[in-house]
Amino acid sequence: MRFIRPTSMLLLGMYGTGALVLGACGGEPAPAHPEAIAPKTDASTERNTRLPKPGSVTETLHGVTVEDPFRALENGDSPEVKAWTDQQNAKTRQYLDAFPSRDALKREIAELIHVGSVDAPYVAAAIPGERRYFHMKREGEQNQPTLYVRDKVGGPDRVLIDASALSADGTNAIDWWYPTRDGKFVAWGMSENGSEESTLIIRDVKTGKDLPDRIPYTRYSSVAWVPGNKAFYYTRHPEPGSVPPGDEKYYSKVFKHVVGTDPKTDVLIFGAGRDKTDTPSLSISPNGRWLVVTVHQGWAKSEVYLQDLEAKGKNAGKWVEVAVKTEALFDAIVRDDRMYIHTNDGAPRYRLFAVDYKTPDRTHWKELIVEAPDVLDGVAVIGKHIVATYLHNASTRLERFDISGKSKGAIPLPGIGTAQVSGPYDGDEAFFNFYSYATPTQVSRVDLKTNKIELWDRVGEKFASEKINVTLMHATSKDGTKVPMFVVAGENVPKNGETPTVLWGYGGFNINMTPAFSARALLTVRHGGVWVFTVLRGGGEFGEDWHKAGMLANKQNVFDDFIACAEELVAQKITNPAHLGIAGGSNGGLLTATVATQRPELYRAGLSLVPLTDMVRYTHYRIAQAWIPEYGDPANADQFKVLYGYSPYHHVKDGTRYPAMLFTTAESDARVDPMHARKMAARMQEAQAASDRPILVRVESKAGHGAGKPTTKVVEELTDEMGFLFHELGVK
């Protein structure tokens, strides 16, 4: 089932991968360099697009006087803010549209995006001896990925849900989908305008028609079908009005729905009385007896609960605590005979246990796969086989084990890159998708009985691989920590310190920055530049210790790591501050905004995409209270000190020569409120001392944080972003 851990969905979208894995490079001639003809913005124009100073607020927080000169820009519904936004968008369009080669750049980017992507399939047994294979794929000019089904492993794809046809402008999206075990039905979530506010729908796989059931408020829903397909367990959020305003984004709970009945009569199964930011996800054993709820409590802690659905009497409906009140992550894989727990408890690089349903307390757990030097990133239990996904130097390797945990050797990958594994619970076949900096996504099938590997699907068959070099370099951070970075460059790039270079970073939420097929990176390399992916603390590439070293009170380590990478690129004469750009999205947008205020002289230009910037007030908007375990709570005096200490909005200084910056946001962003980009852009425009370095903001309509964005909007967005960087960095 195509399931993304709910905690990652709370913040991360397509920007969370470190690279926009939507395309690569084709063979169209490179456009001409956009010469320096973009209009310079004079001071009078700047003043005309600023909000009047009456919006300024000064307050004392934990004994500290905090200036907030653009508080009024938080209210996106006010006519004044709407007018300000329109003026800013007009100014940004005037600047970006003036590049003479913009149309050529747009055509090239469209070609890259149209390479597409494909996922490894979910395998269901439709009838005895036959299976159905469900997978998402996007290629060509499709606006959205399509959900396909194959009625046998080598059969043709059949369209099940064409997301591009859900709306005229392609802004409706499939957020998630869960087939039944027999592959007869699929529960799927649809949202509009990138909002991720899903409505649960049920599609009949044979007829392609949807059943009448509609369940709203199923944002990031997790679904577990009961055998027989007459009912399922699922998660949903409260109906607006049933909780205080704003809290409808929280309080996710588990309900049971009987197909064909009114969702208002669905029975609450789990979640009453729990913390509002707890996020449950579901699994059910194939025989339908064992229901398991994993409760995600941030990005460093989760809990597991078990219920025997066949229990009678006093044990009926009883929840058994399997893993609770422990500062560690636990992920459950549910099978008929036992469950498997993938955890970093006592093992920061993770290990795997087998748990008997009848004796699920920790003293009876059996360790199957011990902690290793590489991070055990994920586990697939397929019949009598276990396929483990490891991270070695932030790249994937695969290893097979038997059901007792004995190693059966490696599954070879096409090269250094990233892979994810799937497979049926009762079969002898595994699937893995693979992509790298130079390889579009491909899916391979592994016969676990014979070890035979064959290509199952791919995108970009006509893609001609770029001639690129990928070098793993290390920088030394402020505290002596070695920080890896992948340097992606063309052949024979001179080390004269003048090559336009872009440094991308994320560093947070236990998210792994592994090799990705990136349109941004390959476009930059094609035009003679260098793209660098950093592996910063706060991610999970080297285990939980690496994650914790970049969260809460340790967040400054992330910024120090990124700055060290920039300094190393300059020291190695790959680039210099006049040709160095920085980029990142979401938590990475916070990163770029912060380092731009901490070391403005080190960079020439930056992209801050759907960013957080006001860390003093971030918890007041959208779903941000869910991020307190990662960032901290500004209502807490000690944590406020940390947050205020790096909050980029509060560290903009008048009269400073800042890098040219492009801040992007979207009206329907359900995760990071657009107020962050608005306030930061306004404050930097006010403070900027360099008249040749514009501070721009781009506010997208009918779009969200990134997930579900149609390719037409992605092409426009990347054309603006890359045109801005190319112009400011002097890319030829």
Automatic annotation (TrEMBL):
Domain Peptidase S9 prolyl oligopeptidase catalytic per the UniProt entry, residue ranges: 516-730
Residue ranges of the region described as Disordered: 32-57
Domain Peptidase S9A N-terminal: 55-457
Top-level taxon of the source organism: Bacteria
Annotated catalysed reactions: Hydrolysis of Pro-|-Xaa >> Ala-|-Xaa in oligopeptides
Keywords on record: Hydrolase, Protease, Serine protease
Protein name: prolyl oligopeptidase
Organism from which the protein derives: Pendulispora brunnea
Lineage: Bacteria, Pseudomonadati, Myxococcota, Myxococcia, Myxococcales
